[in-house]
Specification:
- By secondary structure, the protein is α/β, with parallel strands linked by helices.
- The protein has helices spanning 14-23, 37-46, 85-90, 103-118, 121-129, 158-171, 199-205, 225-230, 248-256, 276-279, 295-313, and strands at 5-8, 25-27, 49-51, 72-74, 94-96, 150-154, 174-178, 194-195, 208-211, 236-239, 262-265, 284-286.
- It has a seven-stranded parallel sheet, with helices on both faces. The protein has a five-stranded parallel sheet with strand order 2-1-3-4-5, sandwiched between helices.
- It is globular.
- The relative contact order is 0.14.
- The chain binds (2R)-2,3-dihydroxypropanoic acid.
- (2R)-2,3-dihydroxypropanoic acid binds at residues 54, 77-79, 102, 291-292.
- (2R)-2,3-dihydroxypropanoic acid binds next to loops.
Length: 323
């Protein structure tokens, strides 16, 4: 029997590409270019499974192709707001993601953003490299202490809980959170976290607000002018979730007016475009969507996709089936 045909939309960890090439009739994206709508549609016409990443927009338009051959989308990433799941389901596709394997890695990066912005690490490095450092002095580049402060989490899923564990146990931070679907008390008992009835309650108390909700319609611009005004003027906003949760124009205004103290951002509304106002500010830390970007995690994510497609083509229900 011939092997199922796969089209992989971007370069993946080399060990994972090797496994895919061995087990399947695999078409890789040798030059790693982002695929256009037409290329994604061709992929759906020509492969049994298409393996997109979180930067491929698999919209209803993309999925509206005639003569679709694909039966499965094995997405490389935990977030799935880049895929129109209803349209995919209507087109008869099985869709999977890669939960769990990137939890710790992303939580590490959220803490890195928090520490970097509070302790002015990026700013300090730029200062030194620019040859501006004239030596130690008591008032030089004073930042904000992290230990013992209050961390407010918007969303209390796996990644938020991993951030909370680092913050509570490593930095003695007090944890507060809001989640419309809160976790079971026993799952977070060791965090001594306080549940807030609304996001506003979190904004009012937190020294650091860290976003851990999914992107998409439900949370679009959750952090806009009102939310930013509700935060303490000394607070820092951290986003390692999805860019569209923040109204970037409102954030720039809030930062310029000193309504909040700073922001650490790994994700943006219109990636890879970053609001020009953010680029001008010193009190922001900007990273190019690196949450899961370690060798170990990217390999684990790819292997989780392999597990899902292996199950699918063996006639089983993949472990991470979304629809
Ligand atoms: C995801 O998986 O959703 C991240 O944004 C990329 O790792």
């Amino acid at each position: 029997m011939s092997k199922p045909k796969l089209i992989v939309t971007r370069r993946w960890h080399p060990d994972v590409e090797a496994v895919l090439a061995e087990r399947y009739d695999t078409q890789l994206n040798a030059d790693d270019h982002p695929m256009s709508v037409a290329e994604l549609q061709d992929a759906l016409r020509n492969a049994d499974a298409v393996l997109p990443t979180v930067s491929d927009k698999v919209t209803a338009e993309v999925l509206s192709v005639d003569n679709m051959r694909a039966k499965m989308l094995g997405s490389n990433g935990v977030g799935f707001n880049h895929i129109d799941l209803e349209a995919a389901k209507a087109a008869g596709l099985t869709v999977t993601n890669t939960p769990e394997v990137l939890t710790d890695c992303t939580a590490d990066l959220a803490m890195a953003l928090l520490l970097t912005v509070a302790r002015r690490v990026g700013e300090g490095e730029r200062h030194l490299r620019n040859g501006e450092w004239t030596g130690w002095r008591p008032t030089h580049m004073m930042g904000t202490s992290v230990t013992g402060k209050t961390l407010g989490l918007i969303g209390m899923g796996r990644i938020a809980r991993a951030v909370a564990a680092r913050a509570a146990h490593g930095f003695n931070m007090k944890i507060i959170y809001h989640d419309p679907f809160p976790p079971k008390a026993e799952d977070i008992a060791d965090l001594h976290a306080t549940q807030c009835a609304s996001p506003e309650e979190v904004y009012a108390q937190a020294d650091f607000v860290s976003l851990h909700c999914p992107g998409g319609k439900e949370t679009y611009h959750l952090i806009g002018t009102d939310a930013l005004k509700a935060m303490k003027s000394s607070a820092f906003l951290i986003n390692s979730a999805r860019g569209d949760v923040i109204d970037e124009a409102a954030l720039v205004t809030a930062l310029e007016n000193g309504e909040i103290a700073g922001a650490g951002l790994d994700v943006f509304e219109n990636e890879p475009v970053v609001h020009p106002g953010l680029l001008k500010l010193e009190n922001v830390v900007l990273l190019p969507h690196l949450g899961s970007a370690t060798q170990e995690t990217r390999k684990a994510m790819g292997m989780r996709v392999v597990e899902n497609i292996d199950a699918f083509f063996a006639g089983q229900t993949p472990r991470d089936k979304l629809v």
